[in-house]
Amino acid sequence: MKVAFIGLGNMGYPMAGHLASGGHDVAVYNRTTAKAEAWTGQHQGRAVATPAEAATGAEMVFICVGNDDDLRSVVFGNDGALAGMGEGSVMVDHTTASAGVAREIAEKAQAAGVGFLDAPVSGGQPGAEGGVLTVMVGGDDADFERARPVIDCFAKAVTLMGPVGAGQLTKMCNQICCVGIIEGLSEALAFGMKAGLDVTRVVDVISKGAAQSWQMDNRAGTMIQGEFDFGFAADWMRKDLRICLDEAGRNGSLLPVTATIEQQYGRLHERGEGRLDNTALIRLLKDA
Which helix or strand (DSSP H or E) is residue 20 part of? Predict the structure, then answer.
């Protein structure tokens, strides 16, 4: 299939690579041209100058950028992806963004005869590189069935959650759970250190019981070692939590723990540590 991929960040770069490895004809666009050129040096495909050019002639256009405003900037306007897409094509957005912007894009896409799926992912950079992401999708059944075999190139699970916006709402649930676990793990490790325990042994023991989690299995060791120069940045997690809190304000949900942790990420940002991995929450507790 002729496809486009817009946004070659830590996630998009390997995701686009899996599409190329899967035999698809891939055109890529990235705001930083050097990144797109590096991608074409590693993979079969071509780099283009605008999102519209990437989308021209594509049956499916994939997007993975930073936030709502970034998304609008690559979708709308004369150089935006929607301007290049033909009737009957499908746009698949993997950005973690608001449900509101997903509905906004879907409405304009529908007017142009283009399908739209909001399809945020979970699994982080390792999941993207390994092609084993979990993808939660909102949109039309027919668009989903067309896109699913292509998304399978970089996913281990692809699930339609409901109409447009449902993918983003599901990702919000994911992030709420993740930060609660990260904060709990941070508190437990900092507590164990101050109590004089061998926290590596503590993790080895409690990971075999009810406290076990993905975060414990994959991040406890780096948290203990104080290694945070990798992974999903604290500033990006803070952005995601603000989306959750905004949505909670609209639907009347109470997110007291999430609100507190968002403030903790704000403290990391103020300390100049917002680009560290989101598990750097433990630094606030160890430094206390």
Answer: helix 12-21
